[in-house]
Design a protein that fits this description.
With 203 residues, the chain is mainly beta. The protein has no helices and 15 strands. The strands form 4 sheets. It has a 6-stranded antiparallel barrel with strand order 2-3-4-11-10-7. The protein has a 5-stranded antiparallel sheet with strand order 1-15-12-13-14, with no helix packed on it. The protein is globular and about 45 Å long. The N and C termini lie close together (5 Å). About 7% of the residues have low confidence.
């Protein structure tokens, strides 16, 4: 099961390791987590393919500039070895391939910090189904985790280079000082992880 990550819900202490069940196969989940970027959005983030395969779930702040939504480009990957960027001689990074899709904001909730994107072909702007391209949709997770339940976070934190990054931790309790409660975790989460997937031990 899967939920999105948000910077409001975490403490970035060093994560524990080797806590996942033997049945959990992270490689099966990587193709469902996407990279989002747009100059219009003034930055990058992560997202998860959901619904029938034509939608991406992410955080609202990833696809919002001021009070207005923005439409990011979307990149798919197949494994932890797939790169979405490269580095120049001066050490700066640049996107090394064209986007696989364009995402348009169809639903947004600033209070919950959630947004849903509709995927479109970048050339024709026709609706695109990621599931038919080998990037299956995942079912969002709504059940509350058990105390100290293992969690794995996938995304592109910026500090993790040009490939997808995953960190491990546990469910650390509830944050109740906001309008809506948030889950806390000690899994390391940085800017760019926002909107990416947090998986329990069942995947």
């Amino acid at each position: 099961t899967v939920s999105t990550t948000t910077m409001l819900s975490v403490a970035t202490t060093p994560p524990p390791v080797n806590r996942l069940d033997d049945s959990f196969n992270i490689a099966d989940l990587i193709p469902s987590v996407v990279f989002l970027y747009s100059d219009e959005c003034e930055g990058s983030g992560s997202g998860t393919v959901v619904g029938d395969g034509g939608l991406v779930l992410t955080n609202a702040h990833v696809v919002t500039v001021g009070n207005s939504p923005c439409d990011p480009d979307v990149w798919f990957i197949d494994s932890d070895e797939d790169k979405i960027c490269d580095y120049g001689q001066d050490g700066s990074s640049f996107l090394s391939r064209r986007p696989d899709a364009v995402g348009s904001v169809t639903e947004i909730d600033d209070d919950l910090d959630l947004a849903v994107l509709q995927l479109h072909d970048p050339s024709t702007l026709r609706p695109l189904n990621a599931g038919s391209m080998g990037h299956p949709p995942l079912e969002p997770w709504t059940a509350k985790p058990e105390p100290a339940e293992p969690l794995t976070v996938l995304g592109w934190p910026g500090t993790g280079g040009c490939t997808i990054t995953f960190t491990q931790g546990i469910y650390s309790g509830m944050e109740l000082d906001y309008r809506f409660p948030f889950y806390k975790t000690d899994a390391t989460v940085n800017h760019g992880n926002s909107g990416g997937a947090a998986f329990d031990s069942a995947g």
